[in-house]
Amino acid sequence: MQKCILSLLSFLIMSAAPSAWAATDWIAGKHYAEVATAARPALAAGQTEITEVFSYGCPACNLFNSYAHKIKERLPAGSKFLYVPASFIPAEDWPMFQRAYCTAEVLGIADKGHDAMFEAVWTTGELATMDKTTGRLKSPMPTIEQAALVYNRVAGVKAADFTAAAASFSVDMKMKAADDFVKAYKVSGTPTLIIDRRYKVSVQSAGGYDQLMELVAWLVAKDKKQP
Fold first, then answer.
1. CA angle 145-135-159, nearest 5°?
2. For residues 135 and 8, what is the distance between their CA atoms, to the nearest angstrom?
3. Would you say the pTM of this structure is higher than 0.85?
4. N or C: which end of the chain has fewer CB within 10 A?
5. CA distances (Å), 15 to each of 19, 52, 131, 200, in order?
6. Which CATH homologous superfamily contains domain 45-224?
7. What one-character-per-residue DSSP string does 177-201 give?
8. pLDDT at position 27, please?
9. Can you give the pLDDT at residue 24?
10. Distance (Å, rounded) from C-alpha 192 to C-alpha 202?
11. Spans in the chain with pLDDT lower than 70
């Protein structure tokens, strides 16, 4: 879990901390990073695009998920909140979780299964990567066939159809695109948010969950003033 940007304890401490930053306190290079990109999203005036780099195997992403929903609810109409699954911790099954999400995207059921996948890893334990008794990583790790059962339950897609799609060229290409995105934006930890492909921010850089929500709102407003 070394690349999950904060420990569970740190996240819980920060989530309980009161908001400490006013809008004028946000500093580029400290609280957020300005990133260069050759392609800005094509959006109508007043809309925005936020991309979360995440993994179902990341405990910090699990804790952040409810805040991600709040951010989505507060975005202007027509805006986009996208997810890019990271794969950079193979020892904790992240490539499998990436394949599961990309398969769900191809099948059009990613939204239906998103919360359920977090629950399967961190609540029910059916896709848990950690043995609660020993505190060690499981061996073997959860499989794409087991993930297929979660999507079957919440979205009605046959498990056999899901696993067949998971082995498809389309899913392989989606996984490559996700890895390319992570590399292009130099994402080293999760969860990380990319705002209109212009700013990069994390819970750690913002100083906490509530602070991140304030910072995202501020950056969205700031971006709309940019040419």
1. 10
2. 14
3. yes
4. C
5. 9, 19, 26, 20
6. Glutaredoxin (3.40.30.10)
7. HHHHHHHHTT--SBSEEEETTTEEE
8. 95
9. 53
10. 5
11. 1-24, 38, 225-227
Question: Which of 34-42's residues contact partners 24+ apart within 8 Å by CB, and which partners?
Answer: 34/198, 34/199, 34/200, 35/185, 35/186, 35/194, 35/197, 35/198, 35/199, 35/200, 37/184, 37/185, 37/197, 37/198, 39/197, 40/196, 40/197, 40/198, 41/80, 41/196, 41/197
Does residue 191 have a cis peptide bond before it, meaning omega lies within 30 degrees of 0? yes
Q: Which residue in 208, 209, 193 sits closest to 32, CA to CA?
A: 193
Tens of pLDDT, residues 62-79: 999 999 999 999 988 889
Cα–Cα distance, 59 to 205 (Å, whole number) = 17
- The residues, ordered by sequence, that sit 6+ positions from 16 with a Cβ below 8 Å of its Cβ are none
The residue type at 44: A
Task: Look at residue 135 in the predicted model and tell me its pLDDT.
Answer: 92
Contact 119, 61 (CB under 8 A): no
Give the three-state DSSP class for 133.
coil
pLDDT in tens, 186-219: 999 999 999 999 999 999 999 998 899 999 999 9
Domain boundaries, the chain: 45-224
